[in-house]
Amino acid sequence: MLHDSCGRNIDEVVRAVKALQESDRFGAIPAGWPNNELIGDRIIVPPPKCQKDAATRQKEYEGYDWWFCHVPRKK
What we know:
The radius of gyration is 17 Å and the shape is elongated. Helix content is 35%, strand content 13%. Strands 1-3-2 form a 3-stranded antiparallel sheet, with helices on one face. The chain contains 2 helices and 3 strands; from the N terminus they run αβαββ. The chain is of the alpha+beta class. The protein starts with 9 loop residues before the first helix and ends with a strand. It has a single domain (10-71), classed as Antioxidant, Horf6, Chain A, domain 2, CATH 3.30.1020. The protein has helices at residues 10-25, 51-60; strands at residues 43-44, 62-65, 68-71.
């Protein structure tokens, strides 16, 4: 006899699927998206590929440092 001991939270399943879809299209998604405590529903910009890009990064994007920049979510 099968016993299902795992609870289900449909809202969490839907949130996780939406987060995966957004990350495929735009970039990294923070934990707890879209209600992340630091950046809300913003998208994390992928890291720079070279030192030159790292140096100019905070002029182009909002963020906490060159390695953690974010942009508004495209709707």
